[in-house]
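Fold it.
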Amino acid sequence: MKDFDQLVSVWQGQPKRDQLSVDEALKQVKKGMGSLNKKLLRGITSMMVGFISVFLTMLFLAFESWVTYLGIGIMLSTMLLYVLVMVRDYRLITKQDVTTNPTEYLQSLKEYQHRRADMYGWLYYLYVLLLSIGLSLYFFEVLQSSSPTFKYSAYGITAAWLLFCTFYLRGRILKNEQEKLNLMIDRLVRLQGQFE
């Protein structure tokens, strides 16, 4: 019996979890989502600038080989696909307000987190693969008259950059974004739990 009393006293002595302030939690979630919105808008804008640049290159430069146009077409298609995915994600997280219906907002935030994890998963590898194929086909004609040293340097630098983005930057970006999303989701879940 003495052990039971000791267990009860230890149990009751546990610090209670702090109650989350509704205003503070919602303000932090809105701030975090604002940061993600800006990041997505920057991504969409930069991808569109790249798309327009590649399109103008195809439009105003005359290439002799159809392989070059195929490479540019693959790059344009890949970039357009990536922009459409980012726009869909942007619309998903901006269509609802956390203050109007927190439960629906929490569900859309979880859906966004899952979709971003998928996008940075297999879709990102597909994106890099198609972009690499498009660049290789584009470089086929563009670097044809260059010296072998310059050709190998151009291919090497491009391959190194794509590998760096794929295996280093992608992981860091995904980890950082997932941590932010987990923190926001945790705050909303805790807030939801307080009202149940």
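The chain has one domain: 20-194.
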